[in-house]
Amino acid sequence: VNVSRLGHSPLSTAAPSTVVQTLPATREEEAAKMADSPTIDAVFHNAVIVTMDDAFRVLQDGAVAVAGDRIAAVGPSADVLAAFPCAVQTLDLGGRIVLPGLVNTHVHTSQQLARGIADDVDLMTWLHGRIWPYESHMTEEDSYASTLLCGIELIRSGVSSSFSLCQHGV
């Protein structure tokens, strides 16, 4: 994660095993830093973290600290947990993979409810004989339901951004 694009300071240029957050040297510095730092809402640890940083590192036992809607730190689990011992919530992900949201740049939200109506035909038959007639009879409510279902499926699949190629407007 390139947190500089998220409105945070750039990632540390230190060795890959260090946490993004710089730790204070003394107890006084630590207390001052904790007083000035945002509340860490959650630390997700014990995960495979696909960082997407400049080196495309993958942390095998990594953690992500989150403050509000921002990533506060990314690094090895032990370092992030030590940096934020007072996180509101600490979640052990049991080795699951954490990666940035996926982007789907070609989705037809109005066709979500039409799955299976044309699995057995060629493209031109599908277009002229199936999908265009189907879409031409859709109501606004049909289109809304199809778009809602499509959105749920996209989110459950890890998609955080999409572009709909919908001619009937939703």
TrEMBL record:
The keyword Secreted does not apply. Signal peptide: none annotated. One of its GO terms (molecular function) is hydrolase activity, acting on carbon-nitrogen (but not peptide) bonds. InterPro entries: Amidohydro-rel, Metal-dep_hydrolase_composite, Metal_Hydrolase, MQNX/HUTI_composite_N, MTA/SAH_deaminase. Residues 97-160 form the Amidohydrolase-related domain. Keywords: Hydrolase, Metal-binding, Zinc. Residues 62-85 form the Aminodeoxyfutalosine deaminase/Imidazolonepropionase-like composite domain. The keyword Flavoprotein does not apply. This is 5-methylthioadenosine/S-adenosylhomocysteine deaminase. It comes from Zea mays.
